[in-house]
Design a protein that fits this description.
The chain is built from 12 helices and 15 strands. It is of the alpha/beta class and about 375 residues long. A hairpin with a 5-residue loop joins strand 9 and strand 10. About 45% of the residues are buried. The model has no long low-confidence stretch (mean pLDDT about 95). The structure holds nicotinamide-adenine-dinucleotide.
């Protein structure tokens, strides 16, 4: 096999972007061999490619080696399981599923290690987040004491929410900003710092938009070593902020405005606090700034990595099984908001699924008919 024949399920904003990228020859040894969408007009936009009215028909066609799933999230589980059962490789968009129990079902269907099963966590390719991960994981800054991430630059308009009947409903999407925009950030949290053990969150539904799910979240996290965290997100604030501050024994690291600014303590802060004879002294610090030429290969790099994993056995940047962590974190935040209490991790997956289904049953929200809007510059929506 010298190339991978991929089929894309779902040709909306993201699926079409992936399709166009592959058709433009940007991914070496990856061929767009098939597409499918439940809307025939979207399939018809790709006359040069075999088109199918459903993922099932595309999977059964024998024309592809792999499927990229870019449908609304709930279908990631059902289509993903079908693709894995058919013995094909899978690249699934984030979130890998809507809730933890579905993640477990999807991951359990991956039985053959020769099948490549990856997730589109494109922000893992960003040199700034790679640097932050290195700084934390190498222990260069010592033990982490606190993280603060204000990630409120996911601004979305009412037209965005009206652009798909599935969007921002419990039945169609299973959540709001935590399930749509923040899977990236929640994945980065667990990828850089590990999962917290406790979550207390305040989730405001429809604070800024006419939607029934959360568009404004403030969450407190507690990690196994006692480190704490605050995670703040919203799709209603503009210009919004993306500021990640890490407080560690070895100093402070702040990522904001395409810069990582470090202040390194010459003596770890707790040791200094214990040993200094002076009442108002503090450790001396050494400043440093880390910049990068850009934000990395993003979606294209994940597509190339997926292809290279299939053809050459390259290690995956984002194995899909790791996608359960960001979903669990999102679910824990929502559950904490619903019950007004702290939620312990690991989350009880069955309990969460029941609570979500109850919300779906009890929903009285009437979504206005989906309207077609211009995706003027979809690339701008990716955030950092
Ligand atoms: N990685 C990223 O940066 C990124 C960015 C945007 C969206 N996404 C993800 O991509 C997915 C799609 O988001 P979008 O914004 O493109 O949505 P969208 O509504 O624009 O597109 C979804 C498409 O899927 C089709 N579809 C629905 N059900 C289907 C089914 N059962 N089989 C085949 N096609 C089906 C719809 O007709 C539509 O064309 C979501 O899970 C989202 O989280 C990822």
């Amino acid at each position: 096999m010298d190339k991978v024949r991929i089929g894309i399920a779902g040709l909306g904003n993201m699926g079409a972007t992936h399709a166009n990228c592959i058709l433009a020859g940007k991914i070496s040894r990856l061929e767009l061999a098939a597409v499918c969408d439940v809307e025939p007009a979207r399939v018809a936009r790709y006359p040069q490619t075999k088109g199918f009215p459903s993922a099932e028909a595309m999977i059964a066609s024998g024309t592809i080696d792999a499927v990229l799933i870019a449908t609304p999230h709930y279908y990631h589980t059902s289509i993903g399981i079908s693709v894995l059962q058919a013995g094909l490789h899978v690249l699934v968009e984030k979130p890998i599923s809507v809730h933890k129990a579905d993640c477990e079902r999807l991951i359990a269907a991956h039985r053959d290690p020769r099948q490549i099963f990856a997730a589109m966590f494109n922000q893992r390719t960003d040199p700034y987040y790679l640097q932050l991960r290195h700084l934390v994981r190498s222990g260069e800054f010592g033990e982490i004491r606190r993280i603060n991430w204000i990630i409120t630059d996911w601004f979305r308009t009412g037209a965005y929410y009206a652009s798909g009947g599935w969007r921002a409903t419990w039945a169609g999407e299973g959540g709001g900003v935590l399930l749509n925009q923040c899977p990236h950030n929640l994945d980065l949290i667990q990828w850089i710092f590990g999962l917290p053990v406790r979550v207390r969150a305040f989730c405001r539904c429809g604070r800024y938009h006419d939607i029934e799910v959360e568009d404004d979240v403030t969450a407190c996290l507690e990690f196994a070593n006692g480190a704490t965290g605050v995670f703040i997100t919203s799709t209603g604030e503009s210009p919004g902020t993306n500021r990640l501050e890490i407080t560690a024994e070895g100093g402070r690291v702040v990522y904001e405005d395409d810069q990582i600014r470090c202040l390194r303590n010459t003596v770890p802060m707790s040791e200094f606090g214990r040993t200094s004879p002076e009442a108002f002294a503090r450790p001396e610090t050494v400043p440093g700034v880390i910049t990068a030429p850009g934000h990395g290969g993003q979606h294209q790099e994940i597509l190339q990595n997926f292809t290279d994993a299939i053809l050459d056995g390259a290690p995956l940047i984002a194995p899909a099984a790791e996608g359960i962590h960001s979903v669990e974190l999102a679910n824990a935040m929502l559950l904490s908001g619903w019950i007004g209490q702290t939620v312990e991790l690991p989350l009880d997956a069955a309990h969460y699924e029941r609570r979500l289904q109850q919300r779906i049953r009890e929903s009285r929200f009437k979504k206005k008919a989906a309207v077609s809007v211009a995706a003027t510059d979809f690339a701008k929506s990716f955030g950092r």
